[in-house]
Amino acid sequence: MSSETTVDVKTLELEHVLQIYRRLPVVFTHGRGSRLSADDGREYLDFLSGIGVASLGHGHPGLAAAIADQAATLLHTSNLFFHPLQGALATRLSALTGLERAFFCNSGTEAVEACLKFARRHFHTRGETHRTKFVAFTHSFHGRTMGSLSVTWDEHYRGPFQPLIPGVAFASAAEPGALAYLVDDSTAAIIIEPIQGEGGVRPVSPELAAAINAACARSGALLIADEVQSGSGRTGQFLSSGMLGLTPDLVALGKALGAGVPIGAAMLSTRVAATVMPGDHGTTYGGNLLACRAALVFLDALEHGLQDHVRRVSAHLFRGLRATAARHPNIVADVRGAGLIAGLDLRADAQPVINAALDRGLVVNRTSTTVVRLLPPYVVTEAEIDEGLAILEASLAAVKV
Ligand code: PLP
Fold first, then answer.
1. Residue 113 Cα, ligand 1 centroid: separation in angstroms?
2. Which of 56, 81, 168, 371 sits between 20 and 30 A of 32, alpha carbons compared?
3. From ligand 1's centre to the CA of 48, what distance in Å?
4. Which pLDDT tens digits describe the chain residue by residue (401 residues)?
C-alpha cells in the first residue's frame, strides 16, 4: 500500500466508521512473528499483540494453514448441531483449568457475561433466589456489555450508560480487610482479575487472595476469575489464579486463546454446571469450527514448548525491565506483572512515552494513565526483548517525563 492509499483508508474511516476509537496514525498491512509492517514500508516490533490476542505472533504458518483448511472444509453450523471440534477443545481446556465444563462464546466480555449469568442461575436453581449480588474490585475492567460493565469500576466507562445492573459493590483491592463487610449470604459471586490488565497491570496481593478465599468459604459466594487477559498461558501458567492461591468456580477466557480468531470461553466447575439448564444461555457463533480449530492450534503450540518458552523469555523481560527502572528512578515508579504481561508504572502520563516508542518502531500501549503496558506475543525472542527494551529506554530518555 502506498501513502496515497493510507489517506484513503483514513478518509473512508472518518466518513463511515463510528468514531469511537482514538487510533494511532499507523496502517498495519502485514506481520511476521513479533513484527508488524505498515503501508509506508516501516517495520515495528509488536509488544502489544493486538492487546494480548496474537499469542502465536503474526503470520504463523501452522495457524494460517489450519484456518485455510477449516475455511475450505466447514466454518459454521450453529449450536443446533454437533461438530467434531468443540468437545475436543472443551476437553483440553478442562484439563488445563481443572474446571470440568466449557461454554463457548466470541469475546472476553461475553465470557464474563456468561459467568455472571451462570452464578445467578446457580443460586436460582438451588432456590436461593435472594443471592443475586456481585462484589467486584476497584480498578477492575471486565468488558463493555451491560453485565460486564456493571462490574467494571472506572466511572469513565460506566457513567454514560447508567443505570447498570443493581446489586454490585466494589471492594478496595488495597484493603483486603474490608472485603468481609461487603460479602454476605446475598452475594452470588466475587469477580476478580488475578492480574488487573486495563487497571494498570496490578496482581492480586497474597493478602487479598486470602481475604477472597475466606469470604467465599464463609459466605458460600462463588468466585469468578476473569482471566481474559491474564489467562491462556500469558503468565507462564495456563491460569494465573492458581499461582496466586485462588480457586475459582468460574473462569472467563478470551484474547490469546484464539491467537487472533475471536473466541471466548466460560469454564464452570461441575457443581455450578449442574445447576445450569438447557436453554438458559446461548449464542449463534460461540465455539464454531473456525474458532475451535484456531484455539486447538494455539493449545498444541502451548503444550509443545511455547509455555516453557514464555517462562524463559519472561525472566529475561523482567530482568531487563527492572534494570531499566533502576537506571531511571526519576521516571519509573514500579515494574509489575508476570510472564508476558508487564507494566512499567511511570511518575507521569505514559502517553508521550508510548508515542515516542511508536516513532522509534515499538508498539506498546498505555493503561491507567501512567502505565506503559507490554503484552508481547508468546513467540517473542530474547533478542527481540533486548531490541524492544532499548527502544523503550530511548523513548523514556527522549520524553524526560
Ligand atoms: N476482561 C478483561 C480482564 C479484559 O482485559 C478485557 C478486555 O480488555 C475484557 C474482559 C473484555 O474482552 P473483550 O474486549 O474481548 O470483550
1. 11
2. 371
3. 14
4. 445 566 688 899 999 999 999 999 999 999 999 999 999 999 999 999 999 999 999 999 999 999 999 999 999 999 999 999 999 999 999 999 999 999 999 999 999 999 999 999 999 999 999 999 999 999 999 999 999 999 999 999 999 999 999 999 999 999 999 999 999 999 999 999 999 999 999 999 999 999 999 999 999 999 999 999 999 999 999 999 999 999 999 999 999 999 999 999 999 999 999 999 999 999 999 999 999 999 999 999 999 999 999 999 999 999 999 999 999 999 999 999 999 999 999 999 999 999 999 999 999 999 999 999 999 999 999 999 999 999 999 999 999 75
Nine-digit cell string for 34 = 513479533
Cβ count near 136 (within 10 Å): 25
d(CA 197, ligand 1 centre) in Å: 9
Q: Of the residues 193, 202, 229, 257, which should be mutated to test ligand 1's pocket, given the most ligand atoms within 8 Å of the CB?
A: 229
Ligand 1 pocket list (CB less than 6 A): 107-109, 112, 141-143, 193, 197-198, 226, 228-229, 254
pTM value is: 0.97
- For the CA of 193, the closest atom of ligand 1 is 3
Cα of 32 from ligand 1 centre, angstroms: 25
Atom 10 of ligand 1, residue of closest alpha carbon: 142
Q: What is the CA(40)–ligand 1 centre distance, in A?
A: 31
145 Cα nearest atom in ligand 1:
16
